[in-house]
Amino acid sequence: MEWTKLPRKLSLLTLSLGVAASMIPGAAFAASSLKTPVSGNHLPALIPANQPYISPQINTKSSNLVRVIVQLSGQPAAVGKYAARQGITALANTATEAAVNSQQEEVLDKAEAKKIDLTVNYKYDTILNGFEVTVPADRIPELAKISGVSSIYPNSTWYALPDQTVTEVTYRNDNAPLKQIHADWAADQGINGAGLKVGVIDTGVDYTHPDIAPAYKGGYDSFYQDNDPYEEVPLTPEEDTEYGVGYAGTSHGTHVSGTIIGQYAATGDVAQKGVAPGADLYVYKVLGRNLEKPDTSSGSSAQVIDGIERAVKDGMDVINLSLGSDSEKDVNSPDSIAINNAVLSGVTAVIANGNNGKNGFFSMGSPAASQLGISVGAVNSPINAFSGQFRAEIPNSVTSVTYDTYQPFHIMAYELGKSDFATIFGTGPVKVAYAKLGKPEDYPAGDLSDTIVLVSRGDLSFDVKIANAKARNVKALAIFNGNAKEIDGKIVPDLSDNIKDRNGFMGYNFGDGYQNVPTLDIQGTFGRQLARVIDATEEKTATFTFATDYPVELTAGDEMTNFSSLGPNFDGNLSIKPDIVAPGDGVLSTFPAYGKYHSEADYSKAYQRNSGTSMATPHVAGLALLIKQKHKDYTPFDIRAALANTADPVLYNGEPEDFYLQGPGRANVENAINTPALLQAIEPISILDKNFVPQNVINYNPSTSFGILLPGSEATKVLQLKNMSDSPLTYSASVEWNTGDSKHVSVTLDNSSITASAKSASTFNLKVNVAADTVPQSLQGNIVLKADGQPNLPTLHLPFAISVDKTTEQPSWGTGIQEATLSQPIVYTNSGAVLNYKLKATDINYYEVNLIGLDDVKKGSYQVSTTDSPDKFFEPGNYSTVISSTYHPYDHNGDPILDANGNPAVASLSDGVYKLEILGVKAKDNSKPIKIDYNKDTYYSTYTSFRFITVSDSGSSGGGGGGGGGTVVTPTPVVVSGAVKSLVEEGVQQVTVTPLTASKDGVTTVTVSDSDLKAALAKAAAAKTAVVISVSSIADKSAELSLTAEQLKLLAGMPAGSTVIVNIAGSAVSLPVSLLAASPAGQSLKLVIKQEPDAASKLIAGIPGAKVIGIPVSYEASWTTATGSTYLNVPTNVFIKRTFTVPGKIESKTAGVLFEKDGLVTPVASVFTPQADGTTLVTVSRPGFSVYAAVSKPAAAFTDIANSKSAVAIQTLADKLIIQGTSATTFAPQSNLTRAEFTALLTRALGLRTDTSVTFSDVKSTDWYAKDVAAASKAGLILGIGNGKFAPTQKVTRQELAVILDRAVKLTGTELKAVANPSFTTYSDSAKVAPYAKDSLQALTKAGIFASESGIAFNPVAPATRETAAAALYELLSKSGLIE
């Protein structure tokens, strides 16, 4: 699959007619969105059929002459150009101008052979392959039979626009986008956003504009740090006294604001009507003048985040962000984090998806990548396309030339409100002057108000050519198709007879705008001929005489624009983005006149057309307000689903566009408001909160992606029908493919009819099965729900995407470097993180890992790597860098700062949030640091971010530079004094032994002297004592403590219950002296505490969405002699308590611990204790050592436990990884447990393991529970049912449950305390309790671990339910101190 290419179904005609690539803004698309609209076709997009099509509007029985458009079967040249750019070789080779011309001549020759009398009026080869002819109507059927003719239409879709007088019933705004998204319907219903607040986070606003002033209520300027978010005024170089370069000012926020709340209050020819004019407008200025480049505008992440935070605090219902960075492809960028947390606070966040569509898949950026926001792509809208005819005359040429034939032209642009071209041009000759490429110096001197200026395409962009013409006050501008070329160092027009791809019309329609002059699009061949003849005259003038008719067509609209950025998202799951599309092409809205600073400002023309996803976004923000007004209880997730579920699909040639281009479709607010139910995918994800602490949330997604599936695999997604109404609803559910492979890939629903009760949700499953012989491919479809018996209700759809590949590795994002992830999102003074990333490009010979502040200033580097030879390149693959508290700083010019010895200096981080940039290039000289010009140079990059926190009383881990070639060095964890305190029992005295340390070969050895140990023990009284051996920090990732045989004897002589606590930089373990007393004679003890970063992936393999927090830690102990060692076996009744430190404040009951021993990974009970320094202590107590990791995963989303009395216990144990549901969303609380299931559950919670084999005859060594049964048997938790049998599949009874739990209590050494619970004698059926269970049941009941199920009876022989077992286990683990 060619992921980096545009989907082939992307509208070729749209692309061929789109705005020039040089006019598309790049990385920061907010402040520079297009100021000229891009439109669709000037002619209808004619769809070829299998048989030639003759329009029924043609009376083929008449012999009258008619003018018709004949479309041929070959693709036009524009299609070939696009196909060539996209690598579609076959199409590129057939859709050339030569091929088009050849087919046209062949068809005309055959028509002549058939003696069909026709006259060719126009030929089309760029956007349409065909011609417009005059022909007898009754010969048209014969013409249609000629091979190559695909359709014949009358030239009757063109009509003259009557002059209009502005009245109250005549729209003074561009109403097309409002009708397109059905906002006009909402207005008719009185739904206008009243009572709601919208925050526009942008360049500011001209709040003195008459169409904005009534709605404006306030805001803040985060750029200049004051309370006035006004737009910045343009300055000429003369007015720009400080910098002298001039400044264009800002206007973007005013345009965006008008689209949302335009008041339709202006009294001139034009007024702006917004989508939600009843809402209150607040504006937060985050973009402004770049003082380092004072002729430009920009903003930093810090300013954007400040704007978001202020908007949330000010109580916005919706925020609009028509801004972003195409280069930051990170779902956890600081901006995306801010968006996610705004949504979780109840604010609907709407974000532009970006204007980088030319780069194909993965071209979107941040913060559109926010998984909880609404990202918006752009479609075009219906637009007027005018055409006409003129006749040229050049009176004073060498041979006076008069072109008797009228030449066709199209209107490329015109002034807003001035489309009466018959009046503008009249019927008499109009003077024409030739001005080469349309540069200011190309224009003739004098008054040009009555002159049409003829210029060539090339060198300057169209908007600049039009602006230059506007500055000279020309009557009109005529641009002919062509190129520029260089002659003797000067750029001049190329006036050759034939220029490839430049002989026909240009095909652009920029519409109307006050910034425009009437602009004609003239065919290249004729225009260049005309220019040659005019240029040969002394006066260099000519005249044009215009025909009286100016036909106009309203284009269809609803085509994807070529600039709209594509997904998938960068979440590792290829999730569908954008979330919706809306009108964003040539959008007319308010423009500043800066009345605050100019008292005489004229707002009558303060309107402009802009293009970009920046313009689509406020349409959706307005729709969100309308939905919120109508449905006040809707959450941001509900609003997003309502828009997406009911969107109208965007088609090309009758087929759906790719979901990564259109998302669910174009918004239709009428359906979004009227739907009584929502369709969502329940997707547990992990995001970072504002403190960069991972949080598990449910993303109620209106689309879903299965990511990459391997051949022979299957996957399931949980969907929900959410009934928002007061009555039950039933929908018929089906799967509809857009692009499918039914032979190899099946997608099924477990229910074809879904019913949801009033105000409730009903879940169902979507399952995918991929055959083993499936080839790599991308598949897309919709889950479609239709309301039974209620056809008036909107149909709901949820798009899904499947990628089948031979590997689960992410496809190339087209960025050369991708997938930058940190092992932990928080770095501390003495606790680093490992940055992993992938080099995908094959031509990188130099790369840097740079540190960037939220002010977007590059502060320094962590790593600079080079191949040392320009001709040698890094191998594509995985690379890593350590991110620590120190880095190598840059000066204000971006150059490395050197110390006195000429080496890179070292600086320390201050608290805050930072970005990391991995930047790679193909350098001509890679032997020295490279400086990149981001606007000119070719480079590869990717980004991620982290938070740094200073921790006091901890050692320094040293610098963070160097490295390369993927080498990973992991720093030691942060020292937390609580690690020791948590292991010292209450009331136990504590003595400390100061150790000796040495570092060699990456291992720190720790020893104590006999004298120091004796001195410490002398301080201990004849009572339980904790001997503490503590090392505050180490430079290595492994530490090895050795205690001699003599020292072990000293320690073994301590009072019973005493412990030895060993703390190595925040990872500690408590060894009972009873364990040391069992040491073999003459042998020493070796205790190893080691970081195990490589164990992370193994520990969480197979757990969807799981993430290791911090770095796994292993604890191993052995008896040693001079010749060897023996593993220290721990009895099953000796629970060893250990702690380790992880970054971040991890709330209790939101994460768990996994441990691995002998290849088996299982959960174990754990306690998480947040510390004052921002870290968290994790405590695990179990009989044994091994490797442990703190793990978070998306919170369990069980939908069937709400009414369970054990809901809290079930949720807690599930979130701590101890129990699992029967599916992702069901726990089945009333189902029963088998003896094997409960034994495994309890054994794993206690962390019991054994090397012995199972002894029961009905348990095979290959059974999944065999090791658990063996461990439980050895620990005495289970005894079997007699005759050497265990009965693993038999349901465990309630009294058996009580006995096993009581044994577990005794095993852990827990002394249960009685609580105010009924005693055993209160059970009415106590006589039915077996004798072997009575004592256990009484003890557990008094302690509150067990309770009567019915209030008066215990039901001892009834099978224990899953909820009963969960509740009892929860109480046991809690009262034993093994969980919080």
UniProtKB/TrEMBL annotation:
InterPro entries, per the entry: PA_dom_sf (IPR046450), PA_domain (IPR003137), Peptidase_S8/S53_dom (IPR000209), Peptidase_S8/S53_dom_sf (IPR036852), Peptidase_S8_Asp-AS (IPR023827), Peptidase_S8_Ser-AS (IPR023828), Peptidase_S8_subtilisin-like (IPR050131), Peptidase_S8_subtilisin-rel (IPR015500)
Residues annotated as signal peptide: 1-30
Keyword Protease: yes
Active site: residue positions: 202 (charge relay system), 252 (charge relay system), 614 (charge relay system)
Domain called SLH: residue spans: 1193-1251, 1252-1315, 1320-1380
UniProt KW keywords: Cell wall, Hydrolase, Protease, Secreted, Serine protease, Signal
CDD domains (UniProt xref): Peptidases_S8_subtilisin_Vpr-like
Database matches in PANTHER family: PEPTIDASE S8, SERINE PROTEASE APRX
Family in the record: Belongs to the peptidase S8 family.
Record's protein name: S8 family serine peptidase
Source species: Paenibacillus rhizoplanae
